[in-house]
Amino acid sequence: MLSEGSPAPDFTLPGTGGDAVTLSALRPAPVVLFFYPKDDTPGCTTENKDFTTLAPEFAKAGARVLGISKDPLSKHEKFRAKHELATELLSDAEGTVCEDYGVWKEKKMYGKTFMGIERTTVLIGADGKVVKIWPKVKVAGHAEEVLKEVQAL
């Protein structure tokens, strides 16, 4: 189970913009990973737009912000273009990173039980260790809260 202070599991995933992203290669920059269920749904769109709005502030703080879902790269590209998103999106089509980070969970909606991504954000410090985990994220005000934590590093 991932916990604050533990090493963040390394990964390489395909990203929007054409390049694969390897987490360990981003050091010593702090990294914000926000896991979200699905492109082009209301909550996920709002969350991505909020991180996009604050992208200059995250950059000023030296942090990389990466959104991760199981959607294919082609869907990520359309989603970014449609909503003019600045955040880089990574495709975890196989779900291994979601499982490594403990965000692939049993969920319930409208009386049905299914497996899906629990909206979670993980802040990784310059040393590659988990600084903070936000499980079961509520979108409103979340990107601002993460930015404050990044600025405090």
UniProtKB/TrEMBL annotation:
| One Pfam family, short name | AhpC-TSA
* EC identifiers of the protein: 1.11.1.24
The UniProt keywords, alphabetically, are: Antioxidant, Disulfide bond, Oxidoreductase, Peroxidase, Redox-active center
Outline the extent of the Thioredoxin domain.
2-153
What domain of life is recorded for the organism?
Bacteria
Record keywords: Oxidoreductase included?
yes
Reaction(s) catalysed (UniProt annotation): a hydroperoxide + [thioredoxin]-dithiol = an alcohol + [thioredoxin]-disulfide + H2O
What is its quaternary makeup? Monomer.
Report the function annotation for this chain.
Answer: Thiol-specific peroxidase that catalyzes the reduction of hydrogen peroxide and organic hydroperoxides to water and alcohols, respectively. Plays a role in cell protection against oxidative stress by detoxifying peroxides and as sensor of hydrogen peroxide-mediated signaling events.
- Similarity comment text for this entry: Belongs to the peroxiredoxin family. BCP/PrxQ subfamily.
Q: What is this protein called?
A: thioredoxin-dependent peroxiredoxin
